[in-house]
């Protein structure tokens, strides 16, 4: 199982001459050596020192880790803001740091910034400047203190959103008065797979071979069933520290695959929280020396894919009589199935096969407690006559800004023709 370790080097000094008889020195000896050097000055012709990554029995002179853990709060009001944005592929995360003169509480207090869009596939080399607009702030679990992570979206110098800026369009939909009135809630189940660094094969799998069949791994416990729990736990705590509305985590059906849930979140907040949680997960796997993939079908064959099931409800769905509103939403979703599928993640056709708890990508379906349908409704929702629906179609690499806003648009703002509605209701056996 991979262990979460902050990047650190454990320092120790040896003499380059007579190195065979050199002994590890303690922190006390290190201090004494430095003190003697200051007293004597630099001696000419003295033996040179080299630094080795070794550890003494009693203590470790770990200067790099000490610097990484430094709390600057007592000494300066300045903080470090890590500006985070989405790159040209639509799934790659980028970030860079800048110093802010004092702690901030709202994105509006932060300056806009820029980056080289020609290096991220988002601008031509002859006009490469792309502007970052701070949109959401989270506490930085890596630097601690008052330092922050900043979710940004990207614009041209003229103030136009660049094509890969999906947050801009989502914010427009979520600010529509009809959508605001319905207070859309989202609970997003982010699945991901951990890979061994050099071979890009799932964590815990024998290299070039396969583990035992699926069955014991889902929510499993034990060294032969759970691979990467430390990463999952570290991510869980880091998200809670940051203020991300993470609500749970579990091992998934395929060994080396995990899931965490974010929500319930309202409107645009759902996308901000998922993107920040993905960034934190990327940073943790970076430190652990493990590769993170959001590929919807990382291993071909009789293995589960990775999705990003999106639980969704509106105010009307959560109130008395809400089940009829849910049925109307399902009807609308059926009529825009192709539009949703095209926006639900690259490579999703490899996952949505009708097997491994998925519906076929070409066929829309719904059912109560049926994980093989496009849309699943829970037993409690059916029993209580109100609640939420689960869209099981989104892939693990979906853009949460796109998926959440599209669900709101289709179920709140979009109205089908009466003829199309009647045909769809008949086909799906829906009475609305």
TrEMBL record:
Enzyme class of the recorded protein, top EC level: ligase
Reactions listed under catalytic activity: L-glutamate + NH4(+) + ATP = L-glutamine + ADP + phosphate + H(+)
EC number: 6.3.1.2
Pfam families: Gln-synt_C
Keywords: ATP-binding, Chloroplast, Ligase, Nucleotide-binding, Plastid, Transit peptide
Domain GS catalytic, first and last residues per copy: 163-432
InterPro entries: Gln_synt_N, Gln_synt_N_sf, Gln_synth/guanido_kin_cat_dom, Gln_synth_cat_dom, Gln_synth_gly_rich_site, Gln_synth_N_conserv_site, Glutamine_Synthetase
Cellular compartments per GO CC: chloroplast; cytoplasm
Quaternary data: Homooctamer.
Family in the record: Belongs to the glutamine synthetase family.
Principal location listed in the UniProt entry: plastid
GO function term, MF aspect, one: ATP binding
Localization, UniProt: Plastid, Chloroplast
Keyword Transit peptide: yes
Protein name: Glutamine synthetase
Gene3D superfamilies: Glutamine synthetase, N-terminal domain (3.10.20.70), Glutamine synthetase/guanido kinase, catalytic domain (3.30.590.10)
SUPFAM superfamilies documented for this protein: Glutamine synthetase, N-terminal domain, Glutamine synthetase/guanido kinase
GO terms under biological process: glutamine biosynthetic process
Stretches assigned to the GS beta-grasp domain: 79-159
Superkingdom, taxonomy of origin: Eukaryota
